[in-house]
Amino acid sequence: MLRVRMTNAKAGMELAMPVFHPKRHDTLLLRTGVTLEEATIARLREMKLPELWIKYPSLEVVSEYVNPAVFAKRATVTRQIADSYDSFSTHVDAELDFSEFRESMNGMITLLAEQPRTALFLSEIVELGQPSVRHASNVAFLSVLMGLKLEFYLIRERSRLGGTYAKNVANLGVAGMMHDIGMLRLDEETVARWEESGDEADEAWREHVTIGYNLVRGELEPSAAAAVLHHHQKFNGSGFPLRTTFGGDEVPLAGSDIHIYARIIAAADLFDRLLHPPGSDESDKTPPVPVVRVLRMLQRKPFRDWIDPVVLSGLINVAPPYPPGTTVRLSNGMAGVTVSWAPSHPCRPEVMEIDETLKPGDYQEPGARIDLRECQDLHVAEVDGQDVSKENFSPEDDGCPTLDSIARAMINGAPMRERLSSPPPQKRAG
């Protein structure tokens, strides 16, 4: 299996994954096994589908990272988000059945638990015509993935609850679905101003968190509703809204005073907004922002101070910089496809060489496989036609310990435990 951007799709390629309709999100357009034709490709480009999965000789190993059932379930969740957004946009007194959302999330969680190697956040959902729907779907999916990886942290941060309930992430996923629902009640001028500037100091735009909270309060589990209210809180205390104390003072929330659900959704929200900046699309004029670039940004100021460092490690654990099935070029000029990766060395995947001169349908013998963890003199230099030589990172070197080391430290009660539960220190120069 090979992940191909729509701009690189060619007639003769055979689909390895189904394609869903971009506006009827659970409606199948093309089945697995369909051979692409020029007319089909042109139509898919008109629909702004971002990518396709195609069959490719000797790349069957990638299939263990990709689960068609998860794709289908995610399409169902996206349809639910789109329907709810339509309802709230057109009916002031719209009422939603949030139990359906929880049921869908539970189904997705079951699938992910049954397929632990299933690809994490490695595939873009279709361009839905509504960036807000795409964003909500991405945030919900990514929040659930992080929650599953952060079970040990959820149990610690929700210590008043039993372990089984504390680590359940269905309500986290529903909160991710609804985190920006308040945006639908803002006036068009405010929304347009936000989309153009991204100015979080805009008081009119900031109202969306309170509006959203009031829409879901009493319908969602309290911690999920609170996550809708607080998903713009920042770990260093620079977020909003402020909390009113018993004495009447307004104070910021920071560190572990922010509910863990809100911290996770905040990281997913920021990641997706950086990945899809205003005005971006899938054309050659505005190529997609590489995931590795976004992850690198999040480890630099000011973003690293905004995110719980444990949650940031969880994000890196589920958002591969170079997901399996991605075409890359190494620093020695070799073209290849990533076939596996390790969260401990996220920017050093295993890469299989491919012959760029082959046409769709041509047979290729398995190419050489290079594990970049063992070849320190090589690195990924290009992805999706963009130079990423300076974007590669090592979490430990950048002061972002791996999730395994964090879990061990917390379980063993090491000093790291308290250090990671406080706002991050200033990074040393250099």
Short description:
By secondary structure, this protein is α+β, with helices and mostly antiparallel strands. It has 16 helices and 12 strands. It has 2 domains: about 65-320, Hypothetical protein af1432; about 325-400, no CATH class.
Question: Overview of this structure, please?
Answer:
By secondary structure, this protein is an alpha+beta fold. The chain folds into two domains: 67-318, Hypothetical protein af1432, CATH 1.10.3210; 327-401, no CATH class. Helices cover 40% and strands 9% of the residues. It contains 16 helices and twelve strands. It has a six-stranded antiparallel β-sheet with strand order 10-9-8-7-11-12, with no helix packed on it. Strands 1-4 form a two-stranded antiparallel sheet. Strand 5 (243-244) and strand 6 form a beta hairpin. Helix 2 packs antiparallel against helix 3 (98-114) and helix 4 runs antiparallel to helix 7. The longest helix is centred in the N-terminal third of the chain and has 23 residues, at 68-90. It is globular, with a radius of gyration of 22 Å. It starts with a strand and ends in a 10-residue tail after the last helix. The relative contact order is 0.11. Mean pLDDT is 85; it is low at 415-430.
